């Protein structure tokens, strides 16, 4: 376990480098993710936000650098230890990534089948519990993904990400494609889950409303590294990088930010 200033660091990334062919995405990227926080990774298109999530979760290999997961360096893990670690997180991909041939309940049970040894009725009970945690009605259990709205699919994907009672969930653009009401409801759901379960949330997002409503901290990807971390309000007050200035001080950011900032500009 890594503890710094009394806070536990669940994930530490140091000196990460990654290229695809001749295209270098990062040169030397550093990042810490603290237990219990809601962290947003932001940055311009193509800066490698999605790739970073894939590197941390082991889906993509970096060219250089060290990823430490729950205090253990990723490259030192045995296959068994890696599997143990994978049980400690859940991932919600952008489109929900549900299996279309499985019902919602069966989708939620996929990680349980992979990692646990439970009876069918036990898995069903747990899956129904996850459904209610994400605000889906029991009737949704036997539907196929194609029979659900976009918002319901996201919730079903989140229920699957929560299947193994993870300590951290990775969310890739959780509100993308949702209407404003659906997006606001999803933001509240994320905050509620973080508060009630003590979850750590790592999310890639472009959504300023989400950032200002639910995120404790933001990490900004630019110039092939994380150029700044801080609360959304700190970044807005002292935008010390052109991209941060453009993003956090533009009209859309002012509309999304809490009353204090809005009053200043009105
Ligand atoms: N498997 C891959 N092979 C080659 N290039 C890739 C691969 N995956 C990602 N890239 C490239 O890496 C860069 C970063 O991609 P990534 O999707 O992480 O960006 P992003 O910051 O999430 O962008 P956006 O905000 O547009 O989603 C892009 O230039 C992308 O084309």
TrEMBL record:
Keywords: ATP-binding, Nucleotide-binding, Transport. InterPro entries: AAA+_ATPase, ABC_transporter-like_ATP-bd, ABC_transporter-like_CS, P-loop_NTPase. Residues 11-248 form the ABC transporter domain. CDD domains: ABC_Org_Solvent_Resistant. GO terms for molecular function: ATP binding; ATP hydrolysis activity. It comes from the Bacteria. Belongs to the ABC transporter superfamily. PANTHER family: PROTEIN TRIGALACTOSYLDIACYLGLYCEROL 3, CHLOROPLASTIC. This is Methionine ABC transporter ATP-binding protein. It comes from Methyloceanibacter caenitepidi.
């Amino acid at each position: 376990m890594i503890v710094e200033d009394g806070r536990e660091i669940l994930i530490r990334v140091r000196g990460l480098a990654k290229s695809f062919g001749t295209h270098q995405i990062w040169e030397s990227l550093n990042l810490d993710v603290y237990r219990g926080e809601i962290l947003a990774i932001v940055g311009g298109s193509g800066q490698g936000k999605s790739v970073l999530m894939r590197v941390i979760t082991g889906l993509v290999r970096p060219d250089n650098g060290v990823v430490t997961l729950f205090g253990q360096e990723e490259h030192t893990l045995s296959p068994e230890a890696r599997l143990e670690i994978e049980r400690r997180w859940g991932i919600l991909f952008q489109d929900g990534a549900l299996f279309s041939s499985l019902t919602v309940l069966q989708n939620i049970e996929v990680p349980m089948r992979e990692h646990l040894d439970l009876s069918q009725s036990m898995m069903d009970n747990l899956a129904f519990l996850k459904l209610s945690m994400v605000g889906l009605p029991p009737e949704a259990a036997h539907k196929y993904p194609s029979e659900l709205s976009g918002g319901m699919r996201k919730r079903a994907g989140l229920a699957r990400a929560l299947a193994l009672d993870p300590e951290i969930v990775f969310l890739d653009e959780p509100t993308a494609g949702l209407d404003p009401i659906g997006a606001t409801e999803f933001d509240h759901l994320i905050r509620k889950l973080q508060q009630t379960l003590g979850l750590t949330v790592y999310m890639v997002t472009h959504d300023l409303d989400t950032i200002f409503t639910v995120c404790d901290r933001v990490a900004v990807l630019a110039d092939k590294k994380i150029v700044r971390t801080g609360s959304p309000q700190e970044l807005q007050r002292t935008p010390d990088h052109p991209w941060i200035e453009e993003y956090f001080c533009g009209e859309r950011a002012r509309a999304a930010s809490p009353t204090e900032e809005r009053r200043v500009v009105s």
